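Summary for the steering committee. One of the milestones for this cycle was to obtain a three-dimensional model of the protein with Muraymycin D2 bound, which we needed before selecting residues for the alanine scan. The sequence and ligand used are listed below.
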Amino acid sequence: MIYEFLYPLHTMFSSFNVFRYITFRTIFASITALLICLVLGRWLIRKLQSLQIDQQIREDGPKTHLVKKGTPTMGGILIIFAVVISTLLWANLAVGYVWLVLLVTVGFGLIGFLDDYRKLAGKSSHGISGKTRLAAEIMIALFVGVILYFKPGFNSQVTIPFFKTVLPNLGWGYILLCVFIIVGAANAVNLTDGLDGLATGPAGICFATYLLFAYFVGNVKVAHYLQIPYVPGAGELSVFCGALMGAAIGFLWFNAYPAEIFMGDVGSLSMGGALGTVAIITKQEILLAIVGGVFVMETFSVIFQVGYFKLTGGKRIFRMAPIHHHFELKGWAEPKVIVRFWIISILLALVAMSTLKLR
Ligand code: 57M
């Protein structure tokens, strides 16, 4: 809104010309979201405690988690609030992509909210049925895929890291890819969110990375120089990614070990769905597997664990999946697991950025 109302006044106040710059608005979107989380975090924790919206801890998990019983959850409500307010304030709302990512953020957040609520209402760690949740996620992702597929100027080519001339055109199959990436990313972040800040940190790193990608693909000169697809309007997603990065950092202030609040499925599904959608719009779909490598590693550890368990009639590859629990049961202190996963996430983000030149 600031862009729409204040930039036109630059003819009277020359300093308002600064509102035209995506870089400026991205920085202030990050600061706005971060401050909203810092200012409201303590209040939300107290509110959730008074409403007894606290985490049910599964008995079959690592025993070190039992002390976490009673930790307020559904803190993702704050993340979504901060991101929506900050994006509406600082992004150019005439760009349709902004509304598309906001739809996914709020839509997946609502699914997570209902899941969290059912767990609390049922006082167990099982929420709405997996099929219902998956169906709702697929519906939203399908809507995004169809909108993008039929949007004039948006192509159904897939960008392959390291190969600038390999751009397979999936046709309507691109819609299925959209569903796979958005739903996959949402559930990968959800699985990863099992230690204090374990999902929050890498999510912030991923949005910082896609903040840059969005700016690059949305700038015709930079896109041409890097020989990556030019996506008119995608630059505004830098503002959205900046807001999400700021909100993640702000939430981490309270979610850092020992966590005073968990984000809940409302936060993890929301952030993961938003990340998948940004990766698609910026035409850096496959690169998400590198940028979000921690989320991919966590998900595959579960797939391999469950598959091996069924194949061998009860044997396990890991002491417990997802893999963060494996290291916990090996004796690593929780903070050590968390910070080492953050380091891996930073490394993967740097490798992903390097692929823009290694082509
Ligand atoms: C999402 N949720 C955390 C919190 C957070 C198929 C199977 C792999 C599913 C998986 C599962 O249940 N995943 C659900 C992970 C939970 O966190 C809540 O959920 C939200 C995110 N969706 O915001 O509200 C617990 O994680 C801990 N936590 C923190 N700090 C945080 O900042 O300590 C979360 C956030 C919280 C808290 O203890 O209660 C979770 O782990 O459930 N299942 C598992 O991950 C289980 N693994 C398992 O069963 N492995 C089996 C098979 C199925 C692969 C095996 O290895 O043989 C583990 N999780 C639990 N108990 N809770 C182990 C058993």
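Key point for the committee: DSSP finds 14 helices and no strands in the chain.
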